[in-house]
Amino acid sequence: MAKIKNRGRAFSLYDIEVFLKDAGAEKINENAIDVFEKELEDTVNEVVKNAKTYANYAGRKRLIKKSDVELISSNAFK
Predict the structure, then answer these.
(1) What digits encode the pLDDT tens for the residues 22-71?
(2) Which domain, by its residues, includes 64?
(3) What is the domain count for the chain?
(4) Would 25 disulfide with which of 1, 20, 70, 77, CB 3.0-4.6 Å?
(5) Considering the domain boundaries, does residue 5 fall inside one?
(6) What is the pTM of this model?
(7) What share of residues in the chain are helix, strand, coil (percent, to 5)?
(8) Could you tell me the CATH number of the domain that includes residue 32?
(9) In this predicted model, what pLDDT tens digit does every residue of 45-56 receive, in sequence order?
């Protein structure tokens, strides 16, 4: 599976904290933010892997289209 190259953090801890607060969390432990960041990175890697599979099936080796990601989203929770 293709992974995000280690260039530091994949997501801003501040942005994750703001997202969690917008989702209803009142207080967030820094360790929890680290776990959320890891989960987000894993989820993004999985989406990219699946999108690449759909793109490859459609005859595209390098281009992932919006429709590839939408296919993943429509099948994700079934």
Answers:
(1) 999 999 999 999 999 999 999 989 999 999 999 999 999 889 999 999 98
(2) 13-76
(3) 1
(4) 20
(5) no
(6) 0.72
(7) 65, 0, 35
(8) 1.10.20.10
(9) 999 999 999 999
